[in-house]
């Protein structure tokens, strides 16, 4: 039996799904207001969408946009730390981090309920697709896949594109995470939405549910909404239980703050009823560290 | 561009979903008839459910049941080889293999369209749950996760419980598989069905779809139907495309033979549009070969 308090009682997880404005100040104000609202509704762990302080900056390759980045600690992370302390909640935020000249990251920061910084995660898997030119901006993370022990539970944190990689989810689970949190900024290209939109959103949701099932833990993904230039962000922020059941999901268009009770004790139950961690063939997995094992085609 | 013929044209994949009788002869006869029917409908790759020649033998731990096993090659595998040759189709069968005194496996065999044995896969992840006492019967496989080049495509083959493990799907994809095939025998315990049945079946389906998405390939799962002792097998055999879309799915109760056209060229398209294989952080995945990376609890 676990002696960790996080498995002894339910925890309320808050997700902030919102539209981002061109005004960083307005985004910060709105985020802090929504954090306070979530806390007032009982949320103990509050999760923000990817790069919540900004409109999604990667739709073009623009050197000027590096000026949007901040150090950590820095002004925005300090606001989150203060909110965490004042409200007594854990906060998972997502920031455009300036680490040094020429080294920028897409970074999630975890603040404990006393306002201390538990740790941070620098996005490991960096996308690069039309209108998601992240490889131009973000140096791949070098902190690996971790879990963070907070007052209200052990959290794994990935960022957006990471959610397509079962390896990341598994490594966070093996590191002890009971909840995986994916701050997200994913949306449709309007010209693709008619034909592929439903399938794309379903695939995203399927991957998140699969991580919950395969690893026997909760999965939380706050995503932004609204249109910014070429992208329509699809919202549908969600919380999934360790059997893959959808506990709550926001709409695809409205700003919403979800507060969802999650009984972290269910992690233990799921992993004994579906004992996948027992049966992993770890001696046969070395190939996972290879790029390709087939013939070149 | 690939020079492999498998990516130049669609392939028709057949799945046999059926009830198994206590009579092995009847199961074999029915299977061969359904293989012929599928071939007559144009199927080029025909996939059989797990241990198709038998009622599922693992609901109890019974030493007598080891007598049901056969060597490979052996009588049942020879029947499949003959059918493959006569019909000019690839067949993926699933057998209770006797390898040596005291060494038995749950083995899938792949026959090419000329009747030759391309290879075999011995189930790597062995379940052990109430009414699925497979660890009593099956020695864990020692052939690893492979892909098999056949006349009609490169196939990865897992067996049932393997489908819960993203590692297995990934390794088969990296080995070159364009289609993952999971012969399956999964069902409900009647006393759980009311409360958990829909969730259990959905989780199974979600995992299969997630493998297709994460790896950009087709996933095929033939499952048995019907009640045998304590288990009600849930059928719903399925074919999923590389974006996770369900191309076809059988019912949960009826015997069915599906024949589904799959354009293997879609693998190439999916992997450039969703370039997950490009972005894997292989230098950060070493922990996947560990049992646990967290603190003992």
CATH architecture of chain A: 4-Layer Sandwich
Indicate the percent of residues in helices of chain A.
25-40%
User: Biggest β-sheet of chain A: count, sense, barrel?
Assistant: 6 strands, mixed
Question: What oligomeric state best describes the polypeptide chains here?
Answer: homodimer
Q: What's the CATH C level of chain A?
A: Alpha Beta
End-to-end Cα distance of chain A, whole Å, is 50 Å
Total of helices of chain A? 7
**Molecular shape of chain A:** globular
Would you give an account of this structure?
2 copies of one chain form a homodimer. With 297 residues, chain A is α/β, with parallel strands linked by helices. Helix content of chain A is 28%, strand content 27%. Chain A has one domain (5-289): 4-Layer Sandwich (Nitrilase/N-carbamoyl-D-aminoacid amidohydrolase). The first copy, chain A, has helices spanning 24-40, 75-87, 134-137, 166-174, 190-215, 265-273, 276-279, and strands spanning 10-17, 45-48, 90-100, 103-111, 117-122, 147-150, 153-157, 179-181, 187-188, 218-221, 225-228, 231-234, 238-240, 246-249, 256-263. The first copy, chain A, has a 6-stranded mixed beta sheet with strand order 5-4-3-2-1-15. In chain A, helix 2 links the parallel strand 2 (45-48) and strand 3 (90-100). The longest helix of chain A has 26 residues, at 190-215. Residues 1-8 of chain A have low confidence and may be disordered. Chains A and B meet through helix 4, helix 5 and helix 7 of A and helix 4, helix 5 and helix 7 of B.
């Amino acid at each position: 039996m676990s002696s960790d308090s996080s498995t002894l009682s339910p925890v309320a997880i808050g997700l902030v799904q919102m539209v981002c404005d061109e005004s960083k100040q307005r985004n910060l104000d709105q985020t802090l207001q929504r954090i306070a609202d979530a806390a007032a509704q009982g949320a103990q762990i509050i999760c923000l969408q990817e790069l919540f302080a900004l409109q999604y900056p990667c739709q073009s390759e623009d050197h000027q946009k590096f000026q949007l980045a901040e150090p950590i600690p820095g002004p925005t992370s300090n606001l989150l730390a203060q909110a965490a302390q004042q409200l007594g909640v854990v906060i998972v935020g997502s920031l455009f981090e300036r680490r040094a000249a020429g080294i920028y990251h897409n970074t999630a920061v975890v603040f404990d309920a006393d306002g201390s910084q538990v740790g941070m995660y620098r996005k490991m898997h960096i996308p690069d697709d039309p209108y998601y030119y992240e490889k131009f901006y973000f140096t791949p993370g070098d902190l690996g896949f971790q879990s963070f022990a907070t007052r209200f539970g052990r959290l794994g944190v990935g960022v957006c594109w990471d959610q397509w990689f079962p390896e990341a989810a598994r490594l966070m689970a093996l590191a002890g995470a009971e909840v995986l949190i994916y701050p997200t900024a994913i949306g449709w290209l309007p010209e693709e939405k008619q034909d592929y939109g439903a399938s794309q959103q379903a695939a995203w949701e399927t991957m998140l549910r699969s991580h919950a099932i395969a690893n026997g833990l909760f999965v939380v993904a706050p995503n932004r909404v609204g249109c910014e230039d070429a992208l329509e962000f699809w919202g549908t922020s969600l919380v999934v239980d360790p059997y893959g059941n959808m506990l709550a999901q926001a709409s695809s268009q409205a700003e919403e703050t979800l507060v969802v009770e999650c009984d972290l004790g269910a992690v233990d139950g799921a992993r004994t009823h579906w004992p996948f961690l027992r049966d992993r063939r770890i001696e046969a997995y070395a190939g996972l560290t290879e790029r390709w094992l087939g013939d070149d085609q």
